[in-house]
Write a structure and sequence with these properties.
By secondary structure, this protein is mainly alpha-helical. It has a domain of 95 residues. 55% of the residues lie in helices and 10% in strands. It contains 7 helices and 2 strands, in the order ββααααααα. Strands 1-2 form a two-stranded antiparallel ribbon. β1 and β2 form a beta hairpin. The protein is globular and about 45 Å long. The two termini are 46 Å apart. 14% of the residues are buried. Keywords: Golgi apparatus, Membrane, Transmembrane, Transmembrane helix. Its main location: Golgi. Belongs to the GOT1 family. It is found in: Golgi apparatus membrane.
Length: 181
């Protein structure tokens, strides 16, 4: 795109005075000074996956939860529960990135939840959906139970019913509003 640097007034015989702009020539090469150039490994990147995949992250997580709940409503349909589990784990890994997802599931204090979650998924795939569901539910509560304080805080900010929900839910769960991560 040309850079406008001034104007020129000319007299043309047909239409009187006209105002015309002239521009500087475009830059042919764009090179950064040596002080700015850094190796790719040193460039900060806050997101592992670019923001153009944000709808994919949300869609896969929500679809996983939908399939999981719909599998329960269809009397513990094995295929629906398995699809829900796969999509949910893929969505979580797209949100957090593969390294953070692995470190979340591999933490020492989350080992019981991870083991129960994986055992439940295995039992669902091995044609024991009812038993697998309850073991997996126990694993999910152990893995993501720390986030209940945040969820209750969001429910408490709902305009009309929020204050009525927040107090009893905090007493039942014993949750605080601090983030677990």
């Amino acid at each position: 795109m040309p850079i406008l640097s001034g104007h020129q007034i000319s007299n043309s015989p047909g239409n009187g005075k006209s105002l015309g702009f002239f521009y500087d020539s475009p830059v042919n090469s764009l090179t950064a000074p040596p002080s700015i150039v850094a190796p790719l490994s040193q460039v900060p990147c806050p997101l592992i996956i670019s923001h153009r995949y944000s709808s994919l992250r949300l869609t896969s997580s929500c679809t996983g939860v939908f399939f999981f709940l719909f599998g329960i409503m269809m009397f513990f349909d094995r295929a629906m529960l398995a699809m829900g589990n796969i999509l949910f784990v893929v969505g979580i890994s797209l949100f957090m990135g593969p390294k953070k997802t692995f470190s979340f599931f591999a933490r020492k204090e989350k080992f019981r939840g991870t083991a129960c979650f994986l055992l439940g998924v295995g039992l669902i795939l091995a044609k024991y959906p009812l038993i697998g569901f309850f073991i997996e539910l126990y694993g999910i509560l152990n893995l993501f139970g720390d986030f209940f304080g945040v969820i209750i805080g969001v429910l408490g900010s709902v305009p009309v019913v929020g204050p009525y929900l927040e107090g009893p839910l905090r007493r039942i769960t014993g949750a605080t509003q601090q983030l677990p991560v």
